Each structure stands twice: as C-alpha cells, then as structure tokens.
Amino acid sequence: MEMFSSSVIADLVNRSISFLFSRCQKQTTATVQVDLQLLRRLLMRSDTIVEEAERRHVSNQDMLQQLKALRDKAYRGYYVLDTIGCQALLPGRRSRDGKDKEEEEVKRRTFALSRFNPAKRVRFPSAGDPKPTVALDGASPEELHQMVCSLQAMIDGMDEFVVLLMSCPPMYREPYNVYLSLDRGMFGRQMEKEMVIDFLLKTEPPGAVNQGVLPIVGPMHIGKSTLVESVCRDEKVRNHFSLITIYSRNDLKDETKATFRDKCVIKHQNNQASSGKRLLIVIELIADVDEEAWKRLYSCERSMAQGSKIIITSRSENIVRFGTTEPLRLKCLPVEAYWYLFKTTAFGSDDPRDHPKMASIALEMVDAMQGSFIFASMGADLLRANFDARSWSRVLTRLRQYLQKNASLIGEYPDDVKVKDYPRFSWSVIKEKPDKYFMLHDIYQRGSTHREVPPISLLDLLAERAQPPGKYEILFWKSRIPPYFNYMCTCEIRDM
To answer: Domain NB-ARC, which positions (predicted)?
Structure first.
C-alpha cells in the first residue's frame, strides 16, 4: 500500500511539473512573439527618425550623440531580430543528436583574431573552448525583452530631439534606396565625420600662433582616407577654406617646404572672399613621422593664415603627439552595425528572414571577418552572384580556409599584414574540391586617376571566370566610394 501511494504521489508530482513547464513555455513563447512584434515597430520608428536626421544638417553635438546612440541601439535591435529569426525558422538546429551537434560545432568553429593587439597573436580554440561571441543561438527571451524596453525608452525620450530636428536646415540627397546608399556611401562614420568638421570650422582663440592639428589613427583598411575624403567634400568645409590640399606618402623623411608643397595635390580651391586665405592641409602617412621632419615642416606652415588647419592620418599611434586636440581613433564597427551593413549589401532588396539558412551563413561570415569593409563589399558581390544556400555555404568554407591558412602562416589577421610581399593563399569558391590555389603577393593601392587597371579581378579568379597561367597583376578590389582607391596585387596560380 505504501509503495502504491508513493507511485501515485510521484506520478502526480511529475504531471504537475510537466504541466507547469508546458504552461511556462507557452507563456514564454507568447511573450517572445509580442516582443518581436513590438521590436519591429520600434525599429521602424527609429529608422524614420534616423532617415529624417540624415536629410538635414545637424551640427549640435548633443543631438549628434543622441543620434549615434539611437543608430547603435537600432543596429543591435536588427541583430537580435535576425538571429532570433534564424533560430525560429531553422528548427532542425535544435533537434539534432549530440554527435551531429558536436560535428556542427567543430565545422563552424572559428579562431579569434585581434585587429588591435600589437602582438597580433592568433588563438585557435580547442574542443573545450566556448562558442564564438557572435553565436547563432540567438538572444534569450530576457535579452529580447530588455532590448525592447531600452529601445522603447530611448525613442520615448527623443520628443525634444525630433522638435529640434525639424528646425535644422534640409540638405539635398539623391533618391537612392537603402541598398544603393549603403553600397555607395560611407557607412557607420557619421559621428566621426561631424567631429572632424566641428574641429575644422571651430574658430581659433585670438592670438593663437599655432595651426590646429587633428591626428586620425587607425589600422589598415579601416576607412581613414574615406573619412577624410567625405569631410573634404562637405560644402561647409569647402566654403570655409580657400584651398584644400593632400599629401599622401609613406613618411615625411627628407621633405623640405618646397618639396612638400610640390607633392601636395589640390583637392579643392575656393575663390570666395568669405573663405579668406585659410588653408586645409591633409597629410596621409603609412609609417611614423620623424620628429625633426615634422618640426621642420610645421614651422614652415606657421605662416599660413589664421584659422588654417592640418589633418594627419596614420596607422602609427605615435602621430598622436603632434596633435593640438584630442586624436580621433577609428576602430572596427560593432558587430551589430557590421551585420546591418553586410546583410543589406548581400541580400539587396530581399528580406533575410525569407532565406533563414542563408541568413545564418551570413551571420557566421560576419563573425569571421571582424568588420572588414573590403569583405563587406567584395564578399557581398560574390554572394549576390551566387544567390543560393549551397553556394553561400561553400563561400563560408573557403573563407574559413583562407583565414586559418594565412593566419597560421603569417601569425596575424590577414588584412593587417605589414610585411611587404608576404603572400596570401586563396582558392576557388565554385568547385567542391579545388585543384588549384592562387598566391597573392604585395597588395598595394593606387588612386582613382591611375589608368592602368588590370582586366582580371580577384572575383574573376574566385568564380573561375579567368585562370591565366604564370604570374600577373590583378585587381584585388575597387572601392565604390571616394577616394575610389584601386587595390592591386600580383597573383600566381599553382596546382594543389
């Protein structure tokens, strides 16, 4: 009798627990659906505010800070929405047995590469390492609800911002759709651009004897030249300075005032009386600046008119010591902002939620590339030309192979290589098992005015549209936005 009673009680307890779990699960599912719908509506509202702000000249620094915070929050919202969408539309990811899950984890595991660690060490995770920070398991219901609440609070607190925004003068914008505007315009640097413009237009205190110098520092291919070009094309800047020139070399070694001026290229000349004789000199360097060379040239430029400014850019942190104001340090985009850029360029007008498997593959690519602007453009071109899950999966496999092979040989993130003529290895993305690989030597950039652009591009090789024998120059990548740099390299095809 006691055994029977114990069995009945145990059965009742199990049934009660199962009922409670089932009820909680249903409530959680219902809450998630409500939060997802609310998040979509909030993102539409945030897009409306951001788009209106981008149509107007916003110069108030507090408003710019609010706008940047709203953009960042919206990027995070889209990231959460898309990762949860992939998880919900791919139920098979959770139904696999333990062995399949383990194989899947090994297959999609990627190594961590720091683009800002001076040692540039590469860490290959062991089997016991945790999942990457940009995992495809989506956000938890709690994180989703917190995301919705924080975005709701931010939008509710922007009533005064919207009122002030309507008082800002409108500016002309061509009627691009979202895809074209992201593909052919500077992305993610609006706040930095306004900071540079604010520095350039700021009036120097009476009696100032030194020209203002703004250092801009950042790693290779991070967008320093693109940011400066966008600033120099701004109408307010062009109306403020009578002459804008740019000096672009490896360093300033052995330069005199005469040779320096001869090597400067005129970007803009303004003959309006309101601009006075103010000059803007942009110095773009790769290496560090010799102390004596800088003092020699800077003392020569002291004769420039009051209000003249200098911008100096470099990969070297040492140029910060020459600034008269706080330096601007460019870093990789946050993963949420980079995902927004990449998904828009890769999917175009298609909604990623209509292609959940391809969206999950794209998310893994974003995790691996760590904010590379070149890959966001070149990789998106490759994916749009082969718009199916099987092709995208093959591209992801080749991407992992490219990163692991080159990082193991070089010891650092491939985009950050500084050693001249250090080859990179790559493969075709068309064949299941490539029989050839190509070595890419000495990637360098040329300006848009250079007429001799190679007819064969890296995309042609990756897609096997061309495979000429021998060693020859190819177009590694061509930027679609000013200053329209062409990146070249020497390629050599070899048998596997």
So the answer is: 191-349
User: Do 204 and 163 touch, CB atoms closer than 8 A?
Assistant: no
Give the residue from 426, 439, 443 showing the smallest Cα distance to 379: 426
| Beta-sheet strands, E only, within 210-326 | 212-217, 243-249, 265-269, 279-285, 309-314
Helix (H) or strand (E) holding 35: helix 2-54
pLDDT digit string (tens) for 474-491?
A: 998 888 888 888 888 888
E-state strands within 168-317:
212-217, 243-249, 265-269, 279-285, 309-314
Tell me the two tokens of residue 269: 């000349």
Element (H, E) at 63: helix 61-89
In degrees and rounded to multiples of 5, residue 162 shows phi and psi of -65, -40
Which among 107, 34, 55 is positioned nearest to 361, based on CA atoms? 107
Cβ atoms of 145 and 35 closer than 8 Å: yes
Q: Which two tokens mark 494?
A: 């070899």
Give per-residue pLDDT as tens, 66-90: 999 999 999 999 998 888 877 666 6
Contacts of range 477-484, beta carbons closer than 8 Å, 24 or more positions apart: 477/374, 477/377, 477/378, 478/453, 479/226, 479/377, 480/183, 480/184, 480/377, 481/184, 481/185, 481/186, 481/226, 482/226, 482/229, 482/230, 482/233, 483/225, 483/226, 483/229, 483/447, 483/448, 484/447, 484/448
Neighbouring C-beta atoms of residue 136, cutoff 10 Å: 18
Q: Are 279 and 211 in contact, with CB atoms under 8 Å apart?
A: no
Residue of 492, 182, 210 lying closest to 323 (CA atoms): 210
> How long, in residues, is the chain?
496
Exposed, middle or buried by CB within 10 Å (0-12, 13-18, 19+), for 258? exposed
Q: Is the pLDDT of residue 459 over 80?
A: yes
| Separation of alpha carbons 84 and 141, rounded Å | 10
Task: Please give the pLDDT value at position 281.
Answer: 93
For 381-411, give the DSSP string. Answer: HHHHHT-SHHHHHHHHHHHHHHHHHHHHHHS
Pairing assessment for the beta strands 486-495 and 436-446 based on DSSP bridges: antiparallel
Q: Locate 33 and state its tokens.
A: 């659906």
